[in-house]
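Q: What would this chain look like folded?
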Amino acid sequence: MAEIDNLKNRIIKDGMQKASEIEGEALKKVDNIIAEARKKAEKIVKDAKERAKEEGLKSSERIISGAELDKRNMILAAKQDLIDSVFKSAIQKIRSMKDDEYTALIEKLLLRNVESGDEEVIFAENDKHRIDSGLLKRVNEKLAGLNKQGKLTESRQTVGIESGFILKKGGVEVNCSIEALVWSLRESLETSIAAMLFGGK
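A: My prediction, written as structure tokens:
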């Protein structure tokens, strides 16, 4: 699980960096989006009050409630975009690791995700030139020491992932792409990332 903790720490670090960045232009952008949302909502509320004279109180309350919901949704969308950027940044930084560091990460992910030890490994096309030829041999030796078969083979297939690999056995495929791994951590990290980015906003 150490590699997962390292990835979590990397994402949190990126979140802290992003938080400092939004103190400048990005923060102004968010503030502008929020201000625009409020302006539009207030216009809708104003119109609703005018219509209330004709349609009655209940209709007015419904329209005002809808306006407030629209405002919250616009603000939420702006915040979600910034949170997305943190996770996308983490993916990009992992892809930009030095080849030896990246290969070490892939090795750990293989050892963590292999079940039987005789799966077929389909590497992302972008990774084939980065990963050294002895990787699967090393992994197979370690798998044998873990009482697994140690017979992983590299597939000649290509898959539609940007980085990482797919484990395949029979008709079952396990997505071990870097993208899938990082996004799988989002649920556990989103609250802390949001707190760093927005505080009490």
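Strands lie at 120-123, 153-154, 164-169, 172-177.
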